[in-house]
Each structure stands twice: as structure tokens, then as C-alpha cells.
Amino acid sequence: MSERVIVLNGDNNCSLKPDSGKIKQYLSTVLSLIENGLKNGDRITLQIHSVTKKFTSTTSKFSFPSLKPEVNHKFAVYFRVLRLIHNQISLNESVSKRQIYYMDVSLFKKQSVVDQCIDNLANSIGVSIEHLNVHASQKGLVYANLAFDSFKASRESGCSLIPYVKTSAQKNDIKVLFNNKIGETPRSIIILEKDAILSALVNKEKESTSKQFAESILVTGRGFPDRQTKQFVSLICQTFYNTPVFGYFDADIYGFMIAMEYKNKPMDQVRGPCCPTMQIKGGKLSPHIKGENERLDMLPITDRDINLTLSQLSNFGNNKLEKQFTEMQRSLFLCVKRELRIEDINCW
């Protein structure tokens, strides 16, 4: 049995700038090589560049057929995803990662398998997932009066799913509406860890006449923010660069890690953090620890919390985040954590 090695590397094989025609042609060539190899009974080896969590690239190879079922399955997943992406580019239609998953659930098994495959293919070819006509599924929520392309959000209708934002989007593409005037500058941008807190704030404002957040943009990534949420936050922070940004998170290691996703972690290999100017507020331990009898809203931390905290403090040891470090050290010393409450939200 002869072997056919196919190296997915767009930078070396063709000039894959953001050009859908060249990308389509390149994918057609790759698919033809695979299909012809299978027809001839060749052993097909795919070489890809995988993306790590720290945005470094590692080279991996896997072949079909293989004596290992998991390797055969991996090859089938990549072949199927390549075919689906090629079809979407041919139709000139954009599709979400979630939609691709539902196109062949029995093969993919898990959403994470599709997500990793698409990211690795984009990294190997040398383009973003958007240039493959793929975008992340909508997850985050926004509460404001906003206009962006065909997307419109209204406070009267409540929270809206964050719109699909292309990496090519420019600041000033997004407009806000206050007092029936388009183009006003928001008073603040508020980033919340959980949608439960956002919902509580929205309900509280509807019942009140003060309208505390009437001139603010409220955003939540529903836990760890996805790519779309971070691109949206980056866009509004660039557009309203003089507007203060406040972040409210739980006083535990997960709240700390989520805050770092916005403030400290690069969005990709080219772009920096989506909101490096964010001021981290709320959910702190210090104002609530006065004595043993006054820790009613504290929760005990677990062994997993302790190990994760020690690991994260070591990873971020060189960053100027003294206040956040102090909170995490206090959590370790007292073996407690605290969830964010609606009473903690005060950005004035």
C-alpha cells in the first residue's frame, strides 16, 4: 500500500490571503487528493498545525486506514468538516460551528470535536475561521439600545444575543441610542460574569424609576466568554475608548480566570486582550470579612479550587494585578469564596 501525505499549509501551497476564491480552490485540491487516494487504495496521512490554549502551534499527523479506531474516527471528522466548509464557501453562505455539528451528530459526537477541528484547519491553512465562512455560535448577551449593521438591540425588548462581529469590523460601525439621539457616548460599559445577574439588573431597572443603567451598555459572556463576545466587547471598547469599563465577577478563582479572559488574555495570535482597560470591581471578599459570625454569604472552597488558584496565581505572577492577587490569597488563607450579588453592582 502506497502512502500519500497531504500537508495542510496554506502559506506554503498557495497565497491564501482573505480571498474566498483561492481558499475554495485550495480546499478543492485537498479534497481531490484525499478522494483520489482513497479510490486508489492509498494510505492517506494528514499533517495539520494544531492550536494550543496559549496560541502556539504544534504539528501533528494521523493516517487512514489505521489499526486504531480513534485515529480512523479523527480522519473521518477532518475529511467531513473539510467537505462541509467547502460546500459553505461554494454557496457563499456563513454557518456557525454549532450548525456544522448538527450536520453530522452521529460522526462528531461532541461539539468540542468540531470546534477544535475547525480551529486547527484554519490555523493550518493560515486564515481565520471567518474566511472559511464559519463563525462561533451566539452565546453572550447585551442590554442596551444598539445598532450594528442589520442588528438592533432595544432595552424595551430586554437582553439580546450578541451579534456576529467580523474581525474586519471597524470602530464607529456600532451606534448607541440614548434619549432618541443616535451617536451618543455611553456613560459606562459594564461586563458581568453571569446572565443571572444581568437578568436581575434588568428586572430591577424595569421596576424602578431611577433607570440607573439607562445610559450604559451591559454585557455578559455567560461565564467564560466565547470568541464572538470578546470581539463584540473589543469593538465597543474601541468605539467608545473614553468610556470607563467595569467588570463584575465572583470572588473565586473562576471569577478571576473569567476576568483575565477580558483583561489579560490575547484574543488570538495577532490581537491583544479585548478590554485591557477594564476595572475589576464587585464580588470581593474584603468588605464582608469582619468576624466569624459575619461570613454568612461566604462559601467554602474545595481542594480543586485550591489547586487551581495556586496554579493560576503562578501563571499570572508577573502581571500588575495586585488587588486581584490579594483577593485570591485571602480566599486561600480563609478557605472561602463569595458569589457576586446584585448589591455589588455600583459603577458610579
Overall mean confidence score, pLDDT: 82
Which structural class do the helices and strands define?
alpha/beta
**What does the main sheet amount to?**
6 strands, mixed
Poorly predicted sequence stretches spanning 5 or more consecutive residues: none
Distance between the termini: 71 Å
According to CATH, the fold-level topology of the largest domain is Dna Topoisomerase Vi A Subunit, Chain: A, domain 2
Strand content: 15-25%
Class of the largest domain, according to the CATH hierarchy?
Alpha Beta
| SSE arrangement, N to C | EHHEEHEHHHEEEEEEEEHEHEHEEHHE
Q: Major sheet: order of its strands?
A: 9-6-13-12-14-15
**Mind telling me which CATH architecture of the largest domain this is?**
3-Layer(aba) Sandwich
> How many individual β-strands?
17
Catalytic activity: ATP-dependent breakage, passage and rejoining of double-stranded DNA
Organism: Pichia membranifaciens NRRL Y-2026
Active site: 102 (o-(5'-phospho-dna)-tyrosine intermediate)
Enzyme class: isomerase
How would you concisely characterize the structure shown here?
With about 350 residues, this protein is α/β, with parallel strands linked by helices. The chain has helices at about 10-15, 20-40, 70-90, 95-100, 105-110, 110-125, 195-205, 225-240, 255-265, 305-315, 320-335; strands at about 5, 45-50, 55-65, 95, 135, 140-145, 145-150, 150-155, 160, 175-180, 180, 190, 215-220, 245-250, 280, 300, 335.
